[in-house]
Amino acid sequence: MRSVKVSDVMWNHIEPVRCGTPLTSVVKTLLHNHVSGLPVVDDHRRVLGFVSEQDCIHSLLVSSYHCEGDPIVDDVMFREPVTISPEMSVVDLAQNLGAGKPKVYPVVDHGKLIGIVTRSAILSELARVGCGVELPRYADAED
């Protein structure tokens, strides 16, 4: 189990949010991809921040109440996100999860975003592998 790395469970098919993106577009992306947050990157895929559902909820409530128009992601993103390496062990990451910790982690290699890993992905892998005993994948269990 310790040999399973973040790179084995990360998602690399989700497009990150770019600086300057209207918050309504960010919300559509979050909902479409069923994730609770996404990294915000520059044109070179360097992670500049992170935007969560909670950030969007608060900002959209305030902007609609004050009729301020559509805010952009730069106005609400968290500017010091926790990033992780693709080589990090899933077990090590799981041991660091807890209340107040991120639910989505940007995976960065050589300073550039290469994917994200979610708590759901970690949970799925831990449940699949168990305590060193390989469990059948859900699809295999139906055969």
TrEMBL record:
Keywords: CBS domain
Record-annotated CBS domain positions: 10-68, 77-135
SUPFAM superfamilies: CBS-domain pair
Keyword ATP-binding: no
Gene3D superfamilies: CBS-domain
Cross-referenced InterPro entries: CBS_bac (IPR044729), CBS_dom (IPR000644), CBS_dom_sf (IPR046342), Diverse_CBS-Domain (IPR051257)
Coiled-coil annotated residue ranges, if any: none
Protein name: CBS domain-containing protein
Annotated organism of origin: Marinobacter salinus
